[in-house]
Specification:
heterotrimer; A alpha/beta (444); B mainly alpha (276); C mainly alpha (293); A: 444 residues; alpha/beta; two-stranded antiparallel sheet; B: MetI-like fold; 2 strands
Chain lengths: 444, 276, 293
């Protein structure tokens, strides 16, 4: 065997080995289950999302995805209150100009006509969402057993409170509504601040249902019965609703402005040192501890705790998420699915969370199970994520129904009226009648 | 010599009181917004009058992710173009409505206005589909066309009011001298009603400057206007009030420039409109 | 010459009418046809079959719709009347051409120029009981009302909603009236004064009737804009408390973009269009009659 032959043979062997190992080696290199070999290279995707800090952080790193797959992604960011209008216009025109939509979980069921079912994609790539996400977040992207979206942003509720005011008043952090009322009274007496900032006001997003839901569910009542007819005006439902507004009306521990506040105004009442507690989505903690956004004394003394419950009954909270789905009319569904896989990977989320170089991104959150209990993340957030993971275990979404926006609006009006002094039973019965009509019109 | 009566004295006092009240009523909300635009977020949500001022809000609305610079340009181009097309067309139509009598004139005039009775929300989707088919989505031209649909009707009505106010005998003389109607309009009527035309132009400019819903739906990136950018400061985390105040100052700048340059015209113009 | 003269008016009107038809015909026909169809976006992204007058019939038994009709009427009356009264008052105050008045006149355009959505945001912010400056001032001036949560009471909420509208429009209307006042012949006023009429009588019996044509004109335009008002509902009150500030335009918006029933929203819209058309036609026919030359 001469040298030439030897060289030729060894090249051949290396080549053969390369052929044999190549694809699998490449596949192993491709993270997050992305397809190897850049099959969609050159595809341009458009992703419609609201202009949250989270989307900006994702956009900043999207180059990494392009490097892996050759797919380019354009983030089309719109004002949050207008997100639904933008999705609707694009979907109705049916051009497929936008490939991916980010939407609020409560809109999902009414938008199933615009969205691509993801079950086949998930099955093909062997992705089990229940390993990745808390159940409430999965439910937020699902309608009638079909997955339409996977969230990158989600929020559990937490009780945020002022440690210093609690100390001055000599009260402990409340675990029940009864304790909360007692603590609120003591704080008002000893420190002059309002006990808790509530938000009973009517807005455009049914925010006064967020906490109503916690009172209702932990009080053992529910919004619908088995036949999807209203059950919130049952005796238990009315009792829970009454208790909910009595924080303001009977016990006087809520800020007077609670009557018309929306969520962010309640949070601002705490930020401005006017109230001692607020029960809100967890990202508010990032705002209330930011000395640029909150008064110094507030920023230094904020604490968090689980949402209180009824005495002797279970805890129940709400979870809200913003799933990302693929447009039904998209011409690049496969490429869009690749992007969705990358977008919902835990590493990206963790990197974005830990990157505090930009102060605007303080309110970035994580949704993946793995990250919620990640020691590094919990070190930075002082264990808030572990607390959140616990809250998420008892969390549920609002009923996932196409009619939900309409149903929510009817209940929202009733609660606003009750907080204004109207009779609870009368208003709840009226709302139940409206909801019955809505459900019957839809054929339930 | 007219003595100052008690009656006149009383009304003079009322006038002064009213002046102060008007000033407070009108200026205070704007003053408060100016103040807010120099505050950091923490202070924006407080009633502080003394605080350490910052230019941060003004700087940050021109940076990522807000980038108000190009939005400002889009708004200016769209609003000026709208007015430049709407006003000449409206003036001609208004002249015809004012100077000619014909069957069904009232109905036609109300019809011109009737497009303004439709809630925008039910026409925004058809408009979107229309512009999609014309391949005009995300262009300034689409916004100009759209703004015309609501600036034009009001401009016709306003300019007509000013022409109505003008005695027609001046024109009659010119017609006798052998001018045709277009020459009359161009050389006799137009100069006389110019202040009124400017008034309507400012009205139209402000209407298209502030238009939101259509600009939101019809634009994506290239033709986004300032009002859409402004609403972008209402985030999922509430209202960035300090930024919004700064942005509203920015939105006011062209209005300020306009009000200065055409002040003479404007105030005189409004005077003309009432000559009956 | 005469026959050519006949066509001149059409030539003059042509550009405006063509632009209007070109820009509005398709969308308006489309939405009008939609009002007779079943189009719930929850079921389908495109319009479905025709349902005759179903959408219209539903409106007449819809309590929410009737509520919004009354709210709109109430709001329109309050905002039109107050805008015009305050506008007239400002005009009378600033009528004389002093330096200070000229300065004020140049400020009048600013409230009008502020984006409607922003008006709502800023007034909501100023009325907040915890950190709102206006609430603080009102509490100080009217201590007996310090417990009132302004946007939490139905009638006050409508009042403040009207206030945001008045704040923008009254100064602009004042500008129009200032112009009108300046152009009125002074002889009659002076003659009346010589005859011993007091200031109020001169205004009531002489000035006001002379202003009437312009008042009527401004009244119509302001009414249309009041009925159209939408942004401030969203940003100031969100339609609340309860349904106290849900105007018709807001209700139609909810039916369309929030509840996804485009057919029903379109039907409601065309009920409004028809009503407004009749109103405007009658208004022009009877009130503007004297003006025609």
């Amino acid at each position: 065997m001469n040298a030439k032959k030897l060289v030729g043979l060894s090249i051949g062997v290396v080549f053969l080995l390369g052929l044999l190992m190549g694809p699998s080696a490449l596949a192993a290199d491709m993270p997050y289950g992305l397809k190897a070999g850049m099959p969609y290279k050159g595809t341009k995707l458009t992703f419609l999302v609201h202009n949250a800090a989270q989307s900006q952080a994702q956009a900043k790193r999207v180059g990494e995805f392009t490097e892996l797959t050759g797919i380019e992604v354009e983030f089309l960011m719109v004002p949050y209150p207008s997100l639904r209008e933008k999705i609707t216009a694009d979907a109705v025109a049916g051009t497929g100009a936008i490939d991916l939509y980010c939407f609020l979980d409560g809109w999902g069921p009414s938008m199933t006509g615009f969205l691509t079912p993801l079950n086949d994609f998930l099955k093909r790539d062997g992705i089990d969402l229940s390993e990745k996400l808390p159940p409430a977040y999965i439910k937020g992207g699902t309608y009638d057993g079909t997955t339409f979206g996977i969230p990158t942003r989600g929020h559990p509720q937490l009780l945020l409170y002022r440690k210093d005011l609690f100390e001055q008043a000599g009260v402990a952090v409340p675990k029940t509504w009864k304790e909360l009322i007692a603590a609120g009274k003591a704080i008002k007496e000893k420190t002059g601040r309002d006990g808790i900032a509530m938000y009973y006001g009517k807005g455009n997003a049914a925010q006064n249902l967020f906490l109503w839901n916690a009172f209702l569910k932990s009080g053992g009542a529910s919004i619908f019965d088995d036949k999807m007819m209203p059950a919130f005006n049952s005796p238990a439902g009315i009792e829970a609703t009454q208790y909910y507004v009595d924080l303001l009306l009977k016990y006087g521990v809520a800020s007077p402005g609670s009557k018309f506040f929306k969520e962010y105004e309640a949070s601002q009442a705490v930020a401005q040192d006017k109230a001692a507690m607020v029960i809100v989505w967890w990202w508010h903690f990032g705002v209330l501890t930011n000395p640029e956004k909150a008064q110094a004394v507030v920023a230094e003394n904020m604490g968090f705790a689980p949402v209180p419950a009824w005495e002797g009954k279970g805890q129940a909270t709400l979870a809200l998420s913003m799933p990302v789905g693929i447009n039904q009319a998209s011409k690049n569904k496969e490429a869009a699915w690749e992007f969705l896989k990358w977008l919902t990977n835990p590493d990206l989320e963790k990197a974005n969370f830990l990157d505090k170089s930009d102060p605007k991104t303080r309110t970035i959150v994580v949704v993946q199970k793995k990250n919620l209990v990640d020691p590094e993340i919990n070190k930075v957030s002082n264990g808030m994520h572990k607390a959140a993971a616990a809250s998420l275990e008892v969390s549920d979404t609002f009923p996932m129904l196409p009619e939900w926006p309409e149903v929510a609006a009817a209940i929202e009006v009733a609660i606003s009226n009750i907080a204004g002094g109207a009779d609870t039973k009368t208003e709840m019965d009226k709302a139940a009648k409206e909801v019955t009509a809505i459900m019957k019109r839809s054929g339930y | 010599m007219a003595a100052i009566t008690r009656d006149e004295k009383f009304w003079e006092g009322m006038r002064r009181l009213g002046f102060a009240a008007t000033f407070l009523f009108m200026v205070f909300p704007i003053f408060w917004m100016v103040l807010t635009s120099f505050k950091v977020a923490r202070d924006a949500y407080s009633t502080k009058i003394f605080f350490a001022p910052t230019l941060h809000n003004f700087i940050s609305i021109f940076q990522d992710p807000y980038n108000f610079g190009p939005l400002l340009l889009n708004s200016l181009i769209v609003s000026f173009a709208t007015v430049a097309i709407a006003i000449p067309a409206a003036t001609c139509a208004a002249y015809a409505f004012s100077r000619y009598q014909f069957q069904g004139k009232n109905a036609l005039m109300v019809a011109v206005l009737s497009s303004q009775f439709v809630p925008p929300v039910v026409v925004v989707l058809p408009f979107f589909i229309l512009f999609k088919n014309l391949h005009l989505l995300d262009t300034r031209l689409a916004l100009v066309i759209l703004n015309l649909s609501f600036v034009l009707p009001f401009a016709v009505w306003m300019v007509k009011g000013f022409i109505d106010a003008l005695p027609s005998d001046i024109e009659a003389a010119a017609v006798v001298d052998g001018c045709n109607r277009f020459q009359v309009l161009r050389h006799i009527t137009l100069p006389l009603i110019m202040p009124g035309v400017v008034t309507s132009a400012v009205f139209g400019f402000i209407q298209s400057w502030n238009e939101f819903l259509f600009a939101l739906i019809l634009t994506n990136q290239k033709a986004v206007t300032l009002t859409v950018g402004l609403m972008g400061l209402h985030t999922d985390k509430g209202i960035l009030w300090e930024h919004m105040a700064a942005a509203s100052m920015l939105i006011m700048v062209p209005i300020f420039a306009i009000s200065l340059t055409i002040r003479e015209y404007f105030i005189e113009g409004l005077t003309m409109g009432a000559v009956k | 010459m005469h026959s050519r003269e006949k066509y001149v008016k059409w030539v003059l009107m042509a550009p405006a009418l063509l632009i209007l038809i070109g820009t509005t015909l398709y969308p308006f026909l489309y939405s009008f046809i939609t009002s007779f169809r079943f189009w719930r976006l929850t079921r389908s992204p495109v319009p479905k079959g025709f349902v005759g007058l179903d959408n219209y019939i539903r409106a007449f038994t819809d309590a929410g719709f009737w509520n919004s009709v009354w709210v709109t009427i109430f709001f329109t009356i309050v905002s039109v009347v107050l805008s015009m009264l305050i506008g007239l008052a400002i005009a009378l105050i600033l009528e004389r051409a002093t330096k200070l008045n000229t300065f004020m006149k140049s400020l009048l355009i600013f409230p009008f120029a502020m984006a409607p959505a922003l008006k709502g945001f800023s007034w909501r912010f100023m009325l907040n009981p915890d950190y709102g400056i206006l609430d603080a001032i009102l509490d100080f001036c009217l201590p007996f009302m310090s417990d009132v949560v302004w946007l939490g009471e139905p009638y006050w909420a409508v009042f403040w909603l009207a206030m945001t509208e008045i704040w923008g429009w009254a100064p602009y209307i004042a500008l129009v009236f200032i112009g009108a006042l300046g152009a009125l012949p002074k002889e009659t006023q002076n003659a009346a004064k010589v005859d011993g009429a007091n200031t109020f009588q001169v205004f009531w019996y002489i000035t006001l009737p002379q202003l009437m044509p312009i008042i009527i004109m401004v009244g119509l335009l302001k009414t249309i804009f009041s009925v159209k008002m939408f942004d401030q509902v969203v940003t100031l009150t969100g339609g609340g408390p309860g349904r106290a500030t849900e105007t018709l335009n807001y209700y139609v918006y909810n039916q369309g973009f929030k509840f996804y029933d485009m057919g029903y929203a379109s039907a409601l819209a065309y009920i409004l269009v028809t009503t407004m058309f009749i109103f405007a036609f009658v208004y022009v026919r009877f009130l503007m009659k004297g003006e025609q030359k």
